[in-house]
Amino acid sequence: MTMTNNGKLIVIEGPDNVGRTMHSELLSQRLEANGVATAQIGLLRSPLLKEMMPGGSLEIHILNPRTRSLLYATDLFDQILHHVNPLLDAGFVVIADRYTMTPKVREMVRGGDVEWISSLYKGVPEPDITVILDAGPKRQLGRLLYSEALDRLNYFEAGMDFGDEPSITRSYLKYQRTMRRAFAEEAKAQGCRIVSTKKEVKDVHEKIWQCIFPAIEELIIDSDN
Length: 225
Hints:
- The chain has one domain (8-219): 3-Layer(aba) Sandwich (Rossmann fold), CATH 3.40.50.300.
- The model has no long low-confidence stretch (mean pLDDT 91).
- The protein has helices spanning 20-33, 47-52, 57-60, 65-89, 101-108, 114-120, 137-146, 168-190, 201-224, and strands at residues 8-13, 38-42, 93-97, 129-134, 193-196.
- Strands 2-3-1-4-5 form a 5-stranded parallel β-sheet, sandwiched between helices.
- The longest helix is centred in the middle third of the chain and has 25 residues, at 65-89.
- Helix 5 (101-108) packs across helix 8 and helix 7 (137-146) crosses helix 8.
- Helices cover 54% and strands 12% of the residues.
């Protein structure tokens, strides 16, 4: 859908533990420091889904693929209807910490019907720019260990449902390699920029800023007038 509003939709995609949420927040802070109003959305953040599934991703991931895909799409459309569209009309920059690509890629690597899943998102606002954050699987696992967040290494997000590896860490590494390839394929197909997160946070943020700046430059200039 072609957007006819004054706002911008910036999407930050990528697998788990690459710093999406942190960089979405840093981007929001920098934009607001430049006088640009921002708002953030993300997967499973709609009040509707939070009420239905208070356990969030832990609950949705145990469902069958078709139900899971329908719930992700419902969640996004609820946010778009009640938050995204009004904010874009008001001239906000909406930053999405994941949008349609992640649900699609997750099911694609599991043999899901990609054409059907894509059809669920027909009519959503097209992003002005999408940036995919990238990190090697060992680096992702290292970040989990360093942050002492091993509780996030759950059955689904470690790819244990594939049944290929008895070890959850080996399964995680194998699954993240698969996801990394899938995101790279999507980036190529959709013309999205990939930003490596190997460097320091400030360097990665600067690279992201360079990627999104052409889309928001006019808003910064207007806010200075």
